[in-house]
Design goal:
Length: 166
């Protein structure tokens, strides 16, 4: 095999490995899956919205942790029992707290978390505008004020210069 072709195949193999490593793990086991495709689709959608309480930055759909497995099974059991998607989410939130949701709901208890980034941006913008205005006013004031030497020279020029006839 020519050396150039060998290098090309090696580069392609490395690229495929790198592309494949970026995909989610998909920890759902075949024995967890429901036979009804509609229910399984709902379960997968719900699983992607729920946080693994062990991994914390993964959904239970992507986590291999035993607790994530238990939560996936619980979601499927609740769906088979006839719960709606909202009822399943409400049940899990009542049991594990709102932390189980990857995207927490907006409520009075967490409103500060939702509002804080915008408040910081607004406060920063107002502070920047005020600082810019103060700096500009200080520059104008510095230019307008005469030093004692300049003031003495100005008075001397006024005395020496005869008034112009109109």
């Amino acid at each position: 095999m020519p050396r150039a072709l060998h290098r090309l195949l090696l580069v392609l193999a490395c690229a495929l490995v790198m592309l494949g490593s970026g995909l989610p793990a998909g920890a759902v086991q075949p024995d967890e899956m429901l036979k009804d495709p509609a229910l399984e689709g709902r379960a997968r959608t719900l699983s992607s919205e729920l946080r693994c309480l062990v991994c914390q930055n993964q959904s239970i759909d992507d986590s291999d942790a035993p607790l994530a497995h238990d939560l996936r099974v619980l979601v499927r059991e609740r769906l088979v029992a006839g719960d709606s998607d909202q009822q399943v989410l409400d049940y899990l939130v009542s049991r594990y707290g709102e932390f189980v949701l990857l995207r927490p709901r907006l409520s009075w208890s967490n409103a500060l978390l939702w509002v804080a980034p915008f408040a910081v941006l607004i406060i920063g913008a107002v502070a920047s505008i005020l600082a810019f205005r103060r700096r500009r006013q200080a520059a104008v004031a510095a230019q307008a004020a005469l030093t004692p030497e300049e003031e003495a020279r100005f008075k001397r020029l006024l005395r020496e210069t005869p008034p112009s006839p109109q």
